[in-house]
Amino acid sequence: MTMNAFVTNDTLMLQARGIEKTFTLHQQGGVRIAALSGVSLDVERGECVVLAGASGAGKSTFLRCMYGNYLATRGTIAIRDDSRASRHVVLTEAAPHEIIRLRNTTMGYVSQFLRAIPRVSSLDLVAEPLVSRGVDEDEARARACALLERLNVPRRLWALAPATFSGGEQQRVNIARGLIAAHPLLLLDEPTASLDAENRDVVADLIVEARERGAAIVGIFHDEDTRERVATRIVRLASAGGASVQTDSGVWQTC
Amino acid sequence: MNALLKATRLTKRYDGRGGCVDIDLEVYPGEVLCIVGESGSGKSTLLNALALRSEIDGGALTYTTREGEALDLSTLAEARKRLLSRTEWGFVHQNARDGLRRNVSAGANIGEPLMAIGARHYGRLRETAADWMSRVELDAARIDELPSAFSGGMQQRLQIARNLVTGPRLVFMDEPTAGLDVSVQARLLDLLRTLTSKLHLAAVIVTHDIGVARLLAHRLMVMKDGRVVESGLTDQVLDDPQHPYTQTLVASVLPV
């Protein structure tokens, strides 16, 4: 792999090579589930790559590997880091505190569901990524208000923890939290799944704005309209390993 | 960035067995590390060894001070160890009564660590103590009451104030929320989360509660039978556990 691509190509934000992911379920007799087999991807600034493929093809798994939430079994993922001479960090070899720093400065992630911090208000949840990047608290709150407003989250909910919100409201808080810091690399796992048409449009607008601002985006969108609006490229993951289960005896079965 | 605390093949045995064996770890400034594992896994033994509360039997332990000096903790003179634990470290016990002085007031419990490093001005000590009571959400008007007059959760917050008043860079905590009612525990967790992040505090926290770890820790270490079986980013270890024991541990958590 030619990692100096980050030096020669200023717009390259992420490079994944030969990513394999196999889950070994020790509690279930050591069953192995192959989720990804040899996925490679380059993503540049201003691109929105939409991952497509059947359910079980490993789209979410791939996104989570790129965020460092799942460990890739094989392969390398490199992320742009201009603070280094090599202009990148190899995420798949990085120490935890390096990954935390990358998450702070470079990559944002929106999960399918909000994993809220209990008892923290929606406003503080949304402002937090800015505060942890050193933005003044008042300014962070003001920007969080503006984003929640734009996402049509009712003002009366801002001071409340989102645990009791509807699925759509939680998801919009989640999206606001994921987008507020304007990370140069965004990983979006079905951000529009539980939203009505009007709010889906708002989210699509926000994603297009991020892309036009120069963010590199990788996302999963099941909704055809949203996909049409945001995507600059569609990458289809073959469910090569996804449906196969290997038992400890080494026999491959197809479910 | 340099590690604040670094252990290499750290070993502490009891009666030639048990304890913790060959532990490698690094804690960076501002980083919260949780050590999880069941009773008897060696996690408290490790914590006490790291915090120099017990002699280590093998391996290396270094700490980088505020001034950037790297200290070899295994050969450090007693006086220097005491200074270190007064000026750069804190230690929060599971039971507040082990970390508080029972016969002096709440205010004195907070002021005492400052006096130990030279503060003498009574008015300022009292002011600082009152300020810290408010910061840990205690009523500053109760500054003259004895610790026993406070509830268990409040005593734990008092102990935290006593530990943070000197502005440490690294705090060790041994099951800080165990033994408290769930609602009291929740409030303490919020406080710990806010304080560690606002003060850019590094912490090594021993807990058997995965929920506590998920909420507080940047990083997790999973211990079993005195050894580390898995470590990594908190969300990675909990969402994609690799070791059979970690998988069992994560699968045992009841969803709320």
Question: Describe it for me?
Answer:
The complex is a heterodimer of chains A (255) and B (256). Chain A is α/β, with parallel strands linked by helices. Helices cover 33% and strands 26% of the residues of chain A. Chain A is built from 8 helices and 11 strands. In chain A, the strands form 2 sheets. In chain A, strands 5-4-1-2-10-11 form a 6-stranded antiparallel beta sheet. In chain A, strand 4 and strand 5 (88-90) form a beta hairpin. Chain B has helices at residues 43-50, 78-87, 96-99, 106-116, 122-135, 152-164, 182-198, 210-216, 234-239, 244-251; strands at 5-14, 17-27, 32-36, 58-64, 70-72, 89-92, 170-174, 202-207, 219-224, 227-233. In chain B, the strands form 2 sheets. Chain B has a 6-stranded mixed beta sheet with strand order 6-7-8-3-9-10, sandwiched between helices. Chain B has a 4-stranded antiparallel beta sheet with strand order 2-1-4-5. In chain B, helix 4 packs across helix 5, helix 4 (106-116) runs parallel beside helix 6 and helix 5 (122-135) packs across helix 6. The longest helix of chain B has 17 residues, at 182-198. Chain B starts with a strand and ends in a 5-residue tail after the last helix. The model of chain B has no long low-confidence stretch (mean pLDDT 93). Classes of the chains: A alpha/beta (255), B alpha/beta (256).
